[in-house]
Amino acid sequence: MKPRLYRLLSAQITAILLCSFFIVSMSLITPVYGQALATKTLKAELIVKQINRTGKLAFKRTLTLSFKSSGYLSQLNIDEGESFTKGQLLAQLDSTELIAEKNASYAHLLQAKRDVKRIKTLLSKNLSSQQALDDGKTLLLTTRASYKVALYNLSKAQLRAPFDGVLVKRFTELGELQSPNQGALQLAAIENNLVVRVALTAAEVKLVKLQQKISVNLTGFSAISGTVSKIPAIADQQSHLFTIEIFLKNIKLNQVVVGQLARITTDITTDILAYRLPIEALNSVDSQGRALIMVLVSHSTEAEHYQQQAFVIKQLSNTYIYLSAKKSALPLTVVTLGWQQLVLAKEPPLDAAQ
Fold first, then answer.
1. 160 near 89, Cβ under 8 Å?
2. According to CATH, what is the number of the domain 31-47+272-351?
3. Could you tell me the residue ranges of all domains in the chain?
4. What is the pTM of this model?
5. Residue 128 burial (CB count, 10 A)
6. Which CATH number is 51-61+191-271 given?
7. pLDDT by residue (tens digit) across 52-77?
8. How far apart are CA 131 and CA 33, in angstroms?
9. CA 172 – CA 183 distance, rounded (Å)
10. What are phi and psi of 91, to 5 degrees?
């Protein structure tokens, strides 16, 4: 008994659903002659595209310092995240060997000077030759150059801050042997050195220009105005996106956290003309993907004549459909309310591109 009852209930529910679907379908295609028509006149305008992306705050430039000479690290005065001032001593090598080389070079220089002086004295008494004097002067020049190199190497045994900044990363420890090709400290300036890096698609990056103003939203700040400072020539090989940089001026490092998320927003006017159609005015979409809308084609004191026309869709948003328009396109009057009364007109849709 129960299975039969279930079958009857299932059949009744199916019938109710079919009737409901039929009524709803008929309401969509049957003209509601009592409903008033509402129209809106559209003018061809350039499409404005909005770019909303999330990026990261980063340093625009960093500098990696390394020692010119080999040696063991004997002094380290800063750690990651700490600030420093221009000229401050950050790190230093054990300079025992470099000082010895400098002293030896200086001793050779003194000896070369004495030799030249002695040869000149002998030459004045015809006890030496001009060739010996020339050789002595050459040796004096080479020993002086060697002494300057030793002084330079000794000065480069110290790493001093070239600007006011912060230590981003430290690659070494006290007592480690340093080599000229080994990075020791990575620094970043704290003045005018913050950017937001954002990845854009190829279509979006074409719309962005250098020095273009971009609105940036950071936590703890109202909208900040930034400028595009870098647009890459090629895309990232893995993501196939273009990472642009938006420069933030006069933002202090102690006000933000490098690496935090930032939201950018900008409106870009393209060179594409289109009609901005309210989405409620859309009748349907044909098999070719064109938008079908009801357009006022003639107007007189006796009657108004409307015709359904097809337009190529250029862009979509939540509230508007952008329809293709030519440079010489005239204003377009479309039906936004009550177009259901007119969709049963016998005239086929007209291709607006013709």
1. yes
2. 2.40.420.20
3. 31-47+272-351, 51-61+191-271, 62-93+157-190, 96-156
4. 0.67
5. 16
6. 2.40.30.170
7. 899 999 999 999 999 998 999 999 99
8. 120
9. 8
10. -155, 160
